[in-house]
Amino acid sequence: MNSYSANRLKITLNINSEMYEKEILASDTLLSVLRDKLGLTGAKPGCLNGDCGACTVIIDKRPMKSCMLLAVEAFDTEILTIEGLKDTPIQRAFVEQFAFQCGYCTPGFILICHALLLTDHHPTNEKITTWLSSNICRCTGYQEIENALRSVINSLPLE
């Protein structure tokens, strides 16, 4: 953070390996800053209470619900949004496995899967179920999403 003025403060955020400096309210969520101040609309407002995962981003290699995080809490972290992913295996797998319908939840699911693969190249079935249960899709069954994740896992070399 750089400076304060009245009820506003200036903050610098590292998002998708780019530095953004914005004046915000201390009460602004990361989701609102991403969408309304930076035009990064991949993180979606859904439930706005951390249940649905439509707003998922990755912060320091961990998935986080951006609706539940104040933007000031993301200072001095590395934030990855769906806009920062470029042709990753999980993105290709979502297309190949038809792992989306309306697409509203898709960025959150792609990021939760990407974060899982960053931490564990060969997660157990239980871990996959646990991680995927943090996000909600109202259009599809979860089988296609799980198939996409498993197709990436199966393509990775055993360690």
From TrEMBL:
PROSITE patterns: 2FE2S_FER_1, 2FE2S_FER_2
Domain 2Fe-2S ferredoxin-type positions: 9-85
SUPFAM superfamilies: 2Fe-2S ferredoxin-like, CO dehydrogenase ISP C-domain like
InterPro entries: 2Fe-2S-bd, 2Fe-2S-bd_dom_sf, 2Fe-2S_ferredoxin-like_sf, 2Fe-2S_ferredoxin-type, 2Fe2S_fd_BS, Beta-grasp_dom_sf, Diverse_Oxidoreductases
Keyword Ligase listed: no
Keywords for the protein's UniProt record, in alphabetical order: 2Fe-2S, Iron, Iron-sulfur, Metal-binding, Oxidoreductase
Pfam families reported in the protein's UniProt record: Fer2 (PF00111), Fer2_2 (PF01799)
A single GO molecular function term of this UniProt record: metal ion binding
PANTHER family given in the database record: OXIDOREDUCTASE WITH IRON-SULFUR SUBUNIT, XANTHINE DEHYDROGENASE SUBUNIT E-RELATED
The name this protein goes by in its record: (2Fe-2S)-binding protein
